[in-house]
Amino acid sequence: MSEICYEPIGLLHTPFSEPSGAPIQPCGAGDARGRAELRPELVPALEDLAGFSHVILLYHCHRAAAFKLKVRPFLDHNEHGLFATRAPARPNAIGLSVVKLEAVEGNLLHLKGVDMLDQSPLLDVKPYVPQFDAPPGPLRTGWLADKAREASTQKADERFSPEIS
Ligand SMILES: C[S@@+](CC[C@H](N)C(=O)[O-])C[C@H]1O[C@@H](n2cnc3c(N)ncnc32)[C@H](O)[C@@H]1O
Question: In CATH, what number is assigned to the domain containing residue 27?
Fold first, then answer.
């Protein structure tokens, strides 16, 4: 398989300069506001986006440690296979967050409910469409079944940062 090289479409600005203390998912971010600043030449591609209440952001977790195949995720004391978690340290360190789109202003998207670090390089923006993105039940949520709700209160620590990996 050959290498794939993406150029960021912009940068994310958020209140979280360090992993420790950041929300671990948008459901725990409350009113935390941020901005996506897109490259100016991409502004025409934002036409009609303001009609959507939420957007899917794909971004590079630029400060993640090297990945491990088994990890102890934020919401459990037990190890799990990396791909059964949402840990930021992955072979391709891509983060995915569904956040509220408050306004579109030129090349800026004003966002609420952000869980990513400041200066995360933005790879893509897509409108969130429940009919496309929320599968009909019944759903299984694996080892997170009894733990996912804790993401609304639990904050991150340094476990996926290079310094201590
Ligand atoms: C558990 S990950 C989930 C991210 C995304 N919602 C997902 O599911 O892909 C969220 C945590 O990753 C860390 N993080 C966020 N942005 C990062 C970045 N750009 N580089 C490294 N770590 C990051 C922060 O500690 C944050 O609390």
Answer: 2.40.30.70
